[in-house]
Amino acid sequence: MTDNTRRRFLKTLLAGGGLATLTGCDYLSEKTWFRDTLAQGETLSDVVQHAVTPRKAMAREYTPADISPSFRANGTTDPDAVEYRMLAANGFRDYRLKVGGMVENPMTLDLAAIRALPSRTQITRHDCVEGWSAIGQWTGARLSTLVEQARPHPDARYLVFHCADRYGRSHSPYYESIDMEDAHHPQTLLAYELNGEPLPIANGAPLRLRVERQLGYKMAKYVMAIEVVESFDHIAGGKGGFWEDRGYAWYAGI
Ligand SMILES: Nc1nc2c(c(=O)[nH]1)N[C@H]1C(S)=C(S)[C@@H](COP(=O)(O)O)O[C@H]1N2
Ligand SMILES: [Mo]
């Protein structure tokens, strides 16, 4: 579909009731993200899902009895980059998270500083597109606090997470991105503990993203840097993530 057909189709859809009663007639068209996502070529189903999913709603949380006996690891489970191996060998004492890009206050934080940020513990279900799920308890820093401390530029729209690993035979760096709305969601964490223990290397040590309303591939492991951007067009394949560059949806809502 061309952007024009897409727009016309959506207009018809909105005029026909359904979405319109959910969102208010001209709510969508007033939203700049909506016009921009269409312009960026997000598929219609992405846009509709984005529109009807209450983005501020909480993901379901579970009880300790629901925790999976073992939390499966997937994708990279042991990054072989020399810099990462050196950090791991030293128990991540020399690890530093960089927060930069379109911010007034770029930051470099060690793990003690990250652990000192307001934290949250949550038991959630992780769903991988490959067809498996696992329930785990995550503890981490609330991303919202960190973002506010960095003071993003008013035009900033996304956070890009740069990871330590290159995935599989592609040898391309793993990366991911989320928007400001997800960055401010109370369940969005930079997690450093899984099931009450320090995050294992297999699951992303020392720091991995949890963005609980979305699928597993959004949850960047081995996060080394967070870059605040207005657009991710210029990064790698331009689609906002390693798997997005290979055809997966940018907004992977569950
Ligand atoms: N850096 C990095 N992050 C990643 C991946 C990866 O290969 N590298 N795989 C993703 C996928 S597809 C899933 S399902 C989850 C797996 O997380 P887990 O290993 O804790 O199960 O991490 C996601 N984040
Ligand atoms: Mo996955």
Automatic annotation (TrEMBL):
- Family annotation (NCBIfam families): TAT_signal_seq (TIGR01409)
Signal keyword on record: yes
Q: Where does the source fall among the domains of life?
A: Bacteria
Q: What is this protein called?
A: Twin-arginine translocation signal domain-containing protein
What organism is recorded for this protein?
Marinobacter halodurans
Note the Pfam families from the entry.
Oxidored_molyb
Keywords per UniProt: Signal
PROSITE patterns, from UniProt?
Answer: PROKAR_LIPOPROTEIN, TAT
- Where the record annotates domain Oxidoreductase molybdopterin-binding, the positions are 93-230
Question: Does Signal appear among the keywords?
Answer: yes
